[in-house]
Specification:
The chain has 364 residues and is of the alpha+beta class. It contains 11 helices and 14 strands. The chain has one domain (32-45, 80-363). The protein has a 7-stranded mixed beta sheet with strand order 5-14-10-6-9-8-7. The longest helix has 24 residues, at 120-143. The chain is globular, with a radius of gyration of 25 Å.
């Protein structure tokens, strides 16, 4: 089966170059290294050790010759385990899938015709597959759940479960952190009402929500309700990762009480960024697309599961473990004369870990 479907047939006035075509293009995402900590050298199960700050009291008037050791001060450790899984897939393409369409003009000639590698159409496919690999890493890192069940708090089909169950992603870990410590979740009644509404339409923010500054308040309380160890960090080390819905609503709320400049600031390189309490707000439209496509309330969804989400976190506290950072986006492409097909393979050892549970604050 061809990767590209419904290619137009050859016509008298045919398009002969990919540059003359239109395509939906890549979804825009922040660079993975700007908000995730890529940890290389993770080949198999390995310890991840973190030290807490000391606890207990020290420093008092010391009587003469008192040699009693203070045993109340302790430094505790936190242990987690990297358990990377081998994630991969293979794709195959036959030149004959292109020979009867406008892409025929992009194929090689003679005995080399079956080899589409290095051609315009071949490079186009490689670029598309590399972008898809980026999304594979994001999907598993954020939405992976080893206990996922088809049709339970999702509309994932039984045959699709394997694409989510390889590892526990950041949201699965976050829900466990909140279950253990309710303070890691900022409660906003209106936001939670939107998330729990009975239909897609009722889950959308309203004009009244904009007037009432719902998201502005939620992010504000998220910051002030975060653990003091997180709040003590330099704000440029932190980031709000949000669904596009949260980001859009925040933008509208800021504009409703002032100009666009109240929501955005232009950086030295000309890029417009949005901030809350001096912390960058980064929209993750990938979250919205994944939630809307795969995380309906059941197999025949009428609502999305928590469509509005935000995470306040240090940029290095969301960690992806791999054997090598070069694996991310790496694709092996080759032509096989045995069956006259071009193949593309990728394999990446992958795991995801929230480093310190105290250094994260959730809004949903």
């Amino acid at each position: 089966m061809s990767i590209i479907n419904n290619l137009p047939a050859v016509t008298p006035d045919v398009v002969k170059e990919m540059s003359k075509t239109l395509f939906e293009g890549f979804y825009q995402r922040p660079d993975i290294n700007t908000y995730l900590n890529i940890v290389s050298g993770i080949k198999s199960d390995a310890q991840l050790i973190a030290f807490k700050r000391y606890a207990g009291l020290s420093g008092k008037i010391r009587s003469n010759c008192d040699t009693t050791a203070n045993e109340s001060v302790t430094i505790e450790t936190i242990e987690k385990t990297w358990s990377p899984k081998l994630i991969g897939d293979r794709f195959a393409e036959c030149f004959q899938d292109f020979d009867a369409s406008f892409t025929a003009w992009m194929l090689k000639e003679g005995n080399e015709k079956p080899d589409t590698s290095g051609t315009e159409i071949g490079m186009f496919l490689t670029e598309q597959l590399q972008d898809m690999l980026h999304e594979v890493i994001l999907r598993l890192s954020f939405f992976g759940n080893t206990a996922i069940v088809a049709g339970t708090s999702n509309n994932i089909a039984a045959g699709e479960v394997a694409y989510f169950s390889a590892l526990n992603g950041f949201f699965t870990q976050l829900f466990a952190i909140v279950a253990a410590d309710a303070n890691r979740l900022t409660v906003n009644t209106t936001l939670q009402t939107r998330n729990a509404a009975a239909t897609w339409a009722l889950q959308r923010f309203t004009n009244a929500d904009t007037t009432n500054q719902i998201v502005t308040s939620a992010l504000d309380h998220g910051w002030y309700g975060a653990d003091m160890r997180l709040r003590a960090m330099n704000r440029n080390e932190l980031v709000w990762l949000t669904t596009q819905s949260i980001s859009d609503q925040y933008e509208q709320e800021r504009k409703s009480v002032g100009s666009i400049d109240a929501a955005y600031f232009r950086t030295e390189d000309g890029i417009m960024k949005m901030y809350s309490n001096g912390i960058e707000v980064v929209p993750m439209s990938f979250w919205d697309r994944t939630i809307r496509t795969y995380f309906g309330d059941d197999a025949t969804p009428v609502t999305a599961v928590l469509p509005h989400r935000a995470i306040l976190v240090p940029r290095k506290n969301l960690m992806i473990g791999t054997e090598s950072s070069g694996e991310i986006g790496g694709l092996d492409v080759w032509y096989s004369k045995d069956d006259a097909k071009v193949y593309a393979d990728y394999n990446v050892k992958l795991d995801a870990k929230i480093g310190l549970d105290t250094l994260i604050q959730a809004v949903y």
